[in-house]
Structure formats: C-alpha cells, structure tokens
Amino acid sequence: MADPSSAQKRLAEQAERVVQAREEELAAFREKAAAYEKYLEEQLQKDRAMASLIKDDIVARARMAPSPPVSGPLTPQTEDVVLSKRISLTDQIRAVAKEILAERGGTMSRADIKSAIEERGLVINSPDPAGLLRAALNRSGDFEHIKNVGYRLTAN
Asked: Rounded CA gap, 34 and 32, in Å?
C-alpha cells in the first residue's frame, strides 16, 4: 500500500499544477483583454472622427444651399427644419391639391388631382391612395365635392 504522505504530496502537486494553469490562463486573458480594449479605443476614435466629418459636411452643404423664396410643403428645406417641423401626408395632399386647383381653376376629378399631385413629386404612400385623397379632401373645408364631377375649391 502507498504511503499516505506520498499520496498527499501528489495531490498537493496536482493542485499546484491546476493553480499554475489557471494563473497562466488568467494572464493570457488579461493580455487579450488589454489588446481588445486598445483596439476598441482606436475604433472609437475613428468613429468620432467620421461623425465629426459628416456633421461638418452637413453644415457646409446647408450653408451652400440657397434659401427657398417661399416655404411650402414641396419647397426644399434644410434637414433641421424638416426634422423639427414634419408635415403630415394628409396636410401635404391638401396643400398640393389646393395649389393645383387654384392654378387650373374649375373642377377636377379625384383621378386627375391624384395624377397632378404625383406629377409634382408627392408620393401618396398608402394601401388605398385614392381613398386617402378622398378622405383628405372631404374632411377639409377648403374643398367642395360635386357628385359625379369632382372637386373644386370652396369660396373662402
């Protein structure tokens, strides 16, 4: 039978090897973590520089763009103005339809109004564009619907 003290020595040596292996694993992990931290700091610095360049470009473009003479739903505006003052699709439809009817005078069918709106670049993004146009015009006091004829501006 083996000497109990030699069994304890082997157990102690095995425990020491486990501790040494864990210390080596921890040292390797710390090295990798330090390298990764350095990498992330470099990437963050590059990302900050890119964000700054993009912001500077936006400001420079806004300064170069001529100011629009009249502000309306289809007038190009700076990004800041558009973001701070969003116009609903319904309001855009009404404004453009009002411009079209004022320019052309008289009465126009809903299909003709829809075509004219789209020709001006306004996309009526809806599952039922004709229904949205009808609702926008009917719910406004600016338009009068004449059955089987179309829409005209009210005499305000």
From this structure: 5
Same domain (yes/no): 4, 43: yes
| CA 84/CA 103 separation, integer angstroms | 30
Which tens digit of pLDDT belongs to each residue from 102-134?
A: 999 889 999 999 999 999 888 888 899 999 999
Q: For residue 78, is pLDDT > 60?
A: no
**Least confident stretch, 45-49, 62-66, 75-79, 106-110:** 75-79
Looking at the fold, whether 86 and 134 belong to one and the same domain comes out as yes
Same domain, yes or no: 130 and 99: yes
Does 90 lie in the same domain as 126? Answer: yes
Q: Tell me the DSSP string of 46-110.
A: HHHHHHHHHHHHHHHHHHHSPPPSS--TTS---HHHHHHS---HHHHHHHHHHHHHHHH-S-B-H
- Do 47 and 15 share a structural domain? yes
Structure tokens at 107: 């009465």
76, two tokens: 């190009």
Q: Which domain holds residue 45?
A: 1-64
Amino acid at 42: E
